[in-house]
Amino acid sequence: MASEVKIGARWVGPHHPTYVVAEIGINHNGDLEIAKALIDAAAAAGCDAVKFQKRTPELCVPADQRDAMRETPWGYIRYIEYRKRVEFGFDEYLEIDRHCRSRDIQWFASPWDIPSVDFLEQFAPPAYKVASACLTDVDLLRRLRDTGRPIILSTGMSTMEQIEAAVETLGTDRLLITHSTSTYPCHPSELNLRMLATFRDMFSVPIGYSGHEVGLVTTVVAVALGACLVERHITLDRSMWGSDHAASVEPEGFARLVKYIRVTEQALGDGVKEVYASELPVMRRLRRSPGSALGSQLD
Q: At 22, is the secondary structure helix, strand, or coil?
């Protein structure tokens, strides 16, 4: 049986309510007010946490891409300048931290490099997320492991051998693994939700799902299949400029998603067959077999 991990004040595992993460990522487009509006939307939807992405552009942007030109809301600029524009600094994260506390929602981030881990440590986040793109960055994994904080490992674009190596590096004491396919948006035929059971059989850690599909149904199915943590990207408007908005969920949709997840949890039950009290009047009316065991108990 998979273990459980505590993220902040919430236990995450197969015997706890699904932990729902709204991935803001860079959907704030470098605008703190948009970030705060997304936090508000996630809190109103009933999410447990929001997640950001943190990079040091000089380290994360390959040298051959830095001078590539890109059309952006700030004009036609170099790619590395764009990456700098969508990064928040200390003052912005201080306000994000304050705002999340005021809305009673947790926040953490996916650091893409070691200096970003050091930066985020200033805020004592309840957990870290390893982005799928970083799964093979052993030095980053070791730095995250050494923080002693819970780690959520995303597994998109990774082979089983790479995933096993990452788990060996991170250890399993405070680890959660999320199944993911790194296509934005992802076609249903490539979601492969049965991987949730495969991971559960392979690793004694909580297993979650990080989805990039269009729509809500398949994410709810992931919960029915045992995902104890769910992450979807959130946006104010799917038509906004930016690479992740099209595969994101708008506020109203996110509220429905959380509602569907909670209803699904109720509907799953405990797998023990019983006759519910609400069934007894129906049984008395429809079952006319006084010689049966149940009939004699009801008379």
A: strand
What is the CATH code of the structural domain delimited by 5-268? Answer: 3.20.20.70
Q: Where are the domains of the chain?
A: 5-268, 273-299
CB 234 within 8 A of CB 23: yes
Tokens 């979601």 appear where? Answer: 191
Nearest to 210 by CA among 191, 224, 190: 191
Q: What is the pLDDT of residues 5-21, one digit of tens each?
A: 999 999 999 999 999 99
Asked if 130 contacts 182 with a C-beta cutoff of 8 angstroms, the reply is no
pTM score, whole prediction: 0.93
pLDDT at 297: 52
Taking residue 114's Cβ as centre, other Cβ atoms within 10 Å add up to 16
Q: Which amino acid belongs to residue 200?
A: R
Residue 207, helix vs strand vs coil: strand
CB atoms within 10 A of CB 156: 17
